[in-house]
Amino acid sequence: MMERRHFLKVAGLGATAALADGCSSKSTTNLIPYLVAADDVVPGVPAYYATTCGGCPAGCGLIAKTIDGRVIKAEGNPRHPIGAGRLCARGQASVQSLYDPDRFRGPSIRTSNAEWQSLTWDEAQALLAGKLREVRERGRGGAVAWLGALQTGSMERLTRDWLAAIGSERRLFYEPFDYAALRRAAELTVGRRAIPAYDFDRANFVLSFGAEFLESWLSPVEFAGAFTRLRQRRASDPFGTFIAVAPRQSMTALNADGWVPAPPGAEVFVALSLVHAIVNRDGGAAPGSAPEIRSLVAPYAPEATQPATGVLPQTVRDIARQFTSASPSLAVGGSITGGGADPVALEAAVLLLNIVAGNIGRTVRFDRACALDALATYTDVLELTRAMAAGQIDVLFVHDANPVYTLPPSAGFGAALDRVPFVVSFARQPDETTAHAHLVLPDHHFLESWGDYSPRAGIEGLRQPAMSPYFFTQAAGDVLLRAARAIGAQPAAAFAPQEYADYVRGSSNDEAWGDALRNGGRFEEKEPTPAAETTPPNLSSAIAFPPIPSRGATGDLALIITTSPQLYDGRDANAAWLQELPDPVTKTVWNGYAEMHPDAARALVVAEGDAVTLVSANGQVSARIHVSAGVHPDAVAVPLGYGRTAPLRNAGGRGPYALALVDGAASAGSLPWGTTRVKVTRAKGGRRLIVLQAETRAAGEGSRPPLDAIVTPADVAKPHGSDQAHPESDLYTPHEHPEHRWGMAIDLNACTGCSACVVACYAENNVPVVGEVGCADGREMSWIRIERYDAAPRVTRGIHRTGTISLPMLCQQCDEAPCEAVCPVFATYHNPEGLNAQVYARCIGTRYCSNNCPYKVRRFNWARYTWPAPLELQLNPDVTVRSSGVMEKCTFCVQRIQAARNEARRDQRALREGDIIPACAQTCPADAIVFGDLHDPSSRVSRLARDNRAFHVLEELNTRPAISYLKRVAPDGAVAAGG
User: Fold this and answer.
1) Cis link prior to 713 (omega < 30° from 0)?
2) SS (H, E, C) 550-581
3) What is the pLDDT of residue 334?
4) Has residue 706 got a pLDDT over 70?
5) How far is residue 261's CA from residue 257's CA, in Å, rounded to a whole number?
6) What is the pLDDT of residues 600-631, one digit of tens each?
7) Where are the domains of the chain?
8) Residue 439: pLDDT over 80
9) Residue 92 pLDDT more than 80?
10) What mean pLDDT is predicted for residues 39-62?
11) What's the rounded Cα separation, in Å, for the pair 781 and 850?
12) Are 714 and 974 in contact (CB under 8 A)?
């Protein structure tokens, strides 16, 4: 009897190998795994691999979902302490960067005529070994340098030992956001040159001095979850739980209960005036050191700082009273791209504020070493730049970094790089730095790699490949190991492993290694030990705060360089999902902008969408104006991540390059992000500004939901609609839901507007990207949009109480859906479980359903959208790829509902709560989206639907949606006079 496997091998390959080989660029041997799968792989059944996200230094846990050997979706790892099962928008888009069509296909060398020539890996390894051998023979091993992204664990040890074997100690772990000012300030105030751990979970009140902890500062996914729990715990606080002090309303500031629009660079004086108010009211919580602190802040009384900050003395005292009475509280600051002329002074002032409030050891802790402590400072990078320019560097390795783009051109790094005889880049795709390289050895994507990463003590995240490398790449660790063996580096024992995977595993036994692979790492983070009420500071005599400036018009505007949750520092700018994701503040897509206050725009005679030129002492850029009251009149804000010059199809040549305006000279050891002033003038030409939500202002008093979906803390317990109930009536035949009615609850008090859910929906449901032109024509296809509504601000004693709402809008799965009654071919219908289902094969594109939908959540395919190869590999095979002329929309990830039902049937059990989690709910860092069965009265979604804050959008239309929203809780504008 012939075995089934042998029969499939013979029959399948014999009958189809010639045809398949003619259609594929790969050899027929590569067809075997698809026709005859390995014993532990079931075709079409997903497999999951726990790993660690490499999108930024936060190091969130990630689970890669693979089908037939290809990654199709990224999810958070619930066992990992950092993300706790959640991912940001960039983490979700990591799948797209894995299949980026612009990735290098293999190693290449730049020829004498500046053209790139492909190499085999054997040729590239031999070339590298020969160059290193030559350097060592000339006794120039110390002229080899390494500049790369932050590494811990195995890669940190390997690079250290590898460079030492060559004879070099020149290694810099470089990130554009180095937090050097925070580390230096900690050294001056508490005697620890370290980045503290911030416990938002334990805080009762938060003050931020420009720190965008919900979007880019330190660990935004972790902080978003903790901040949400703080808001839920303190929802009834009449003062609020979060005040933001900053010259611009970032996404983080939009989530504040109050915004203090301090002038650019004046945040430090607001912080010092708060310290002054505290220590001169009752001596503060650290009486042993209060005299020292009182002496330091004596010149910064609230009355003295008011001319520079514009903040009333009584406002300072009210905030100070709340900050100390809501113990423990938490102050964080400042912005990673701001802080004024002296960011160290701002960070020191914020730490003093935590000291006098008794927060050190409670919400601000120094008992857990942070990986970011190992980052090179900007001064270190400038020293390397000078060494390169002076001819002291013979070989430079650049790993997972793009310093030519992320450093100001005035720093001279690009010119210095051209003085280095041999530059080796491990970049995965072309960037501004590879344009200066001599040899490119493309590294694996982190989803294809072995490795480890420890964001802080006690958390050792593991990386394992979720799929085989798609392109002809090699792990940087393997390149180093082979080069060490080729040149006979000593000690040989350090480079004994043949493969980097063995180097990562080390001496772990099989059981320990298997547990680490399953869990995504080793997590032994200790619970914080109870601390005394205060921890005395270790104040340094070197602390020097700047004098209070006199405010005067200079004619120029302060430049604010902003970051966003999607583009970060520009490293992910080539991901189409992120380019088409609206900026959470400006709602712009596919281009940068220059954000300006209406008063400043009128003074310069420019309006929304006008082309302008921004000129500083260091350079100039062109941009389009976006007018917003969320930026100080003395400032203009330009986002980071645009202005790429590399040959990238989605990122190249798009938007203003903000760093071209910045002075490259170090300021207090840091890049002087916040010291640049620019002149703005009208210009011609440029890309037009595409804003997908042109109006964010809410309607006035008495407006209907969702625009008045705000309650004050005093009204949290008041049932929604109790004073305006109206009878319901059926317009259509009632629907029966015999087993389940799936529903969703979205807490607007938790949603931060980060848009991670939007990208997760793109990935899960094969939502196409329409591009810049399509968005300009109103053809965007996203199934979820984050609508933002800004209530009319109420300014009380200088605190702007805006009450901004971020409202995720998706198909409401109405029980009396207006779309269903008008479809002539019954393409949209109501299924027995309450879903407004969509049969794509029936749709003929009349668009009647879209015209009849009051929520405007249905999307029409105007074109046959395609995915440039190999992006088609990211497509979810469980979801139909729609064609042109077809209407599509959210169906609560019906494929996940069906998969959970099949699994429950195999296990011979009923569906349980938690079996079904749509992609948007699974990734939400703030846990704002809850899904479940509305028929189950004990389910979480049912309890939230009955909450006093629950309401339906446009509920007067009687569509009876399956989605309930919970109202945003915001102070009513009255600052608490007591404490």
Assistant:
1) no
2) CCCCCCCEEEEEECCCCCCCCCCCCCHHHHCC
3) 80
4) no
5) 13
6) 999 999 999 999 999 999 999 999 999 999 99
7) 108-177+375-456+476-491, 180-372, 557-691, 707-969
8) yes
9) yes
10) 88
11) 13
12) no
Pairing of the two strands 620-627 and 677-682:
unpaired
d(Cα 354, Cα 343) in Å, to the nearest integer?
17
pLDDT tier, 975 (very low <50, low <70, confident <90, very high otherwise): very low
Distance of CA 589 to the CA centre of its chain: 16
**Other Cβ atoms closer than 10 A to 974:** 13
Cα separation, 424 vs 474, in Å, equals 14
C-alpha to C-alpha distance for 47 and 464, rounded to whole angstroms: 13
Pair type for strands 887-888 and 859-860: antiparallel
Task: Give residue 468's region: left, alpha or beta (phi > 0; psi -120 to 50).
Answer: beta
What is the chain's alpha carbon radius of gyration, rounded to the nearest angstrom?
Answer: 29
Closest CA to 764 of 918, 967, 916, 949: 918
Q: CATH second-level architecture of 707-969?
A: 2-Layer Sandwich (3.30)
Q: What pLDDT is attached to residue 10?
A: 37
- Is 90 exceeded by the pLDDT of residue 7? no
Query: Residue 529's pLDDT is what?
Result: 59
Give 668 or 834, the one with higher predicted confidence.
834
Q: Which fold has domain 180-372?
A: Dimethylsulfoxide Reductase; domain 2 (3.40.228)
> Are 650 and 430 in contact, with CB atoms under 8 Å apart?
no
Which pLDDT score, from 0 to 100, does residue 286 have?
54
Query: Phi-psi category of 686—alpha, beta or left, where left has phi over 0 and alpha has psi -120 to 50?
Result: left
Burial class of residue 402 (count of CB atoms within 10 Å of its CB; 0-12, 13-18, 19+):
buried
CA distance 95 to 576: 12
Q: What is the mean pLDDT of residues 474-498?
A: 86
- State how far the alpha carbon of 772 is from the alpha carbons of 187, 753, 882, in Å: 47, 22, 20
CATH tag for 108-177+375-456+476-491 (out of 1.10.287.110, 3.30.70.660, 2.40.10.350, 3.40.50.740):
3.40.50.740
Q: How far apart, in whole angstroms, are the C-alpha atoms of residue 292 and residue 309? A: 24
Q: What topology does CATH give the domain 557-691?
A: Barwin-like endoglucanases (2.40.40)
Picking from 752, 745, 737, the residue whose alpha carbon sits closest to that of residue 720 is 745
- Over residues 220-257, the pLDDT tens digits come to 999 999 999 999 998 888 888 999 999 999 999 999 99
CA angle 924–930–933, rounded 5-degree value: 150
Classified as helix, coil or strand, 877 is coil
DSSP state of 950: E
How would you label 709-718 residue by residue, b for 16+ Cβ within 10 Å and e otherwise? bbbbbebeee
Residue with tokens 């109870």: 530
| Beta bridge partners of residue 828, listed in sequence order | 838
Q: Give the residue with greater pLDDT, 963 vs 113.
A: 963
3-state secondary structure 227-243: HHHHHHHCCCCCCCCEE
> Please, which residues bridge with residue 860 across strands?
887
